[in-house]
Design goal:
Blueprint: H1 2-13, H2 16-35, H3 42-45, H4 51-69, H5 74-79, H6 82-86, H7 92-113, H8 115-124, H9 133-158, H10 164-186, H11 195-201, H12 203-211, H13 217-245
Helix pairs in contact: 1-7, 2-4, 4-9, 4-10, 7-9, 7-13, 9-10, 9-12, 9-13, 10-11, 12-13
Amino acid sequence: MYAIFKKELSSFFNSAIGYLVIGLFLGVMGLFLWVFEGAFNIPNTGFADLAPFFQLAPWFFIFLIPAITMRSFSEEKKAGTLELLLTRPITTTQLVLGKYLGALVVIIFTLILTLIYVSVLYKMGNPEGNLDVGVTVGSYIGLFFLGALFTAIGIFTSSLTTSQIFAFITAVFICFTLYIGFEGIASLGELSNLSRTLSEIGIKAHYDNISRGVIDTRDLIYFISFTGFFLFLTVYSIRSNRVALS
């Protein structure tokens, strides 16, 4: 599994596309937070508060993470190297986890780079350091679990096809639907009796809870369960390929 994990990391960071994806995320996010006029411009709010970042980040993740994961299995299938991987003395679960953890480390690395925003706001506070550390830490924990779930979704869609574009579009659709789709359906007047239940099926309600600095085990169980579910689907998908080869 470690060899797969190492290969996944090196293939990403040895590619200009990897740096381009991360650079675009940080660059565009920085423009929204510090340059562009609007509701997400931090200096215009007059508060040393990272709330705009944590509101924007999930929407960027919906596109960023599928862009990172779309090649995980799709590229292997297209190049015909998946068959070679499946003949190695590793289990399907180890193969999937190696790919998953490799992509997840890239997401964690990207989140670490955003800590520069925390540093800037810490200095901007009046007095210096006037930053709600509890909410900030909770929001980063929420982003980590959100990223972990989106990564599992992206790995799963990549295991279904040889087309990276199809894997990307499918992952974006699933991530978008799970993040905001159920909440949108819950807001319909005709479904007012089911609104709370539908909202809790979606990701956003659980992400918002953690982002307030309240770590509820129900929210953690939600993220862990859904992440495990999509990893299970990925293992099943790859195992089907292994059976077809035997």
